[in-house]
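Before a computer can learn anything about folding, someone has to put a protein's shape into writing. The three-dimensional part falls to structure tokens, numbers that each stand for a local backbone shape. The protein below has been through that process, and both of its lines are reproduced in full.
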Amino acid sequence: MTAAPGAPEVRLRVMIVDGESAARQALTRQLGVGNAVEVVGTAINARTALAKLQAYRPDVVVVDLVSGDVDGLGFARELRRNGAAPGLVLLVADETAGDARRIDSALQPCEVLTRPRVLAADANDPMPMRAVLAAAGRKGTRRGKDAPAAATGVPSAGPAPAAPPAIAARTWVAQKAEIVGIGTSTGGPNALAAMLPMLPAEFPLPILIVQHMPAGFTASLAQSLTRICRIPVAEAVDGDRVVAGRILIAPGGQHMRVVERNDGVFVELTEDPPEHSCRPAVDYLFRSLHQVYGGRTIAVVMTGMGEDGFAGSRQLRAAGAWIIAQNEASCTVYGMPRGPIESGITDAVAPLDQIAARICEASPWGVLQ
């Protein structure tokens, strides 16, 4: 939906479902900064929320999963079961797997916030706003009924995946590439859901992904992605062999790296200290790709806040790797791609709907077509 000339921009409509008044008030303050979001209503439990849903018509619903009295999980599932369109931001108790195990793949893609942080944060904390914008799939523009799926980044359940991207002629001889490493954070689940289905089933390289997420949530993300992708997607397990025809996502709460042995290359998961306040971290994976593959790597940095992935990309680029970054206009948060782009180390800067094509062009698959 686009505002008429001279009219104020239409804001995202947000509904908060939380049993605690302090949490509702804190979120309302944090989302009230700026003009991108309007909190149109609140509810103290699932029953009340369902009764008010049609009147509020929210673009995004923030749902408390901590309190059993709220039945936030039942409410979120009801939204999905009825085909309701709102994006979801789920409030969990902490970054352990306790709440995460209760979230099935039917709720993905979604954004996650820790409820204690919401309660402790002041009105200037950007995380709630970023989570809402990421859940909406746009940067401050309300989703209209006719908005295409590509604009929101949320896959539809019915249509088949898009056709494999057309391959442009290239002169770079990086058909030497042997692996793809992808790093993303805020907005990443939606971005991955839009991009990964565009890769062909015959894509000849292994793909490893670091998505900043709390422990437990990456399993359901992988399940939701594998339903819409031509290439199977799984949460990585320590000791997984790195092979083509499979996409592995680092588990939330654990770093992922590759190690080379006599009989091949394998995934190793660790609980080494967080980097950039994140575990898993993109730089951690990229450093290991540099050690094992060097310039035979395609590194992709997508939407997310912070600088995770910049140092690793720079190291890989110095070894001759191919660096792809998501462009600013299609990012939910233009943080992680900014460093590689502005430092000039990227070989391709692409909007979300063209990243798969750029990956294919830089791979052996590109010259086989």
